[in-house]
Amino acid sequence: MDILGWTLVILLFVVGMAGAIYPILPGAVAIYGAFFVYGLFFSFSEFGIIFWILQTLIFIVLFVADYAVSAWGVKRFGGSKPSIYGSTLGLVLGPFVIPAFGLIIGPFAGAVVGEMIAGSNLEKSLKVGWGSLVGLFTSVVVKIILQSAMIAIFVFQLVI
Description:
This protein is 84% helix and 0% strand. By secondary structure, the protein is mainly α. It is elongated and about 60 Å long. The relative contact order is 0.16.
């Protein structure tokens, strides 16, 4: 049972980190879930109140940052609400429509189309599309850092 428990914990960590890049995977949820899997297979006794408070705060920040940072990129480059919606839609649908490059093309194209629907010219729309990519990449970096911190706190908690 120990091998199964650790396999599930590690698998959830891998899915979680992949979710930092591939938005359809439940990144932070998988990592947070790994803590419960560990507790069910082994013990919750290693995790004190400080552990749960820290992990929950990071978990909440991850969700807020994920949407806020992506929208920030579009807004920072002059995007309108339709371009934010288009970028978000492109982020979700892009990987399915264009499997190899949809993660990058989707948000860019969605923001460009959204901005053109809002009445902007092609030059401004392309600038907003670029902003969607800046927001996407910034969001990915933030997620990788925070999710790595969640895993590091977990490991630290087990070692001490």
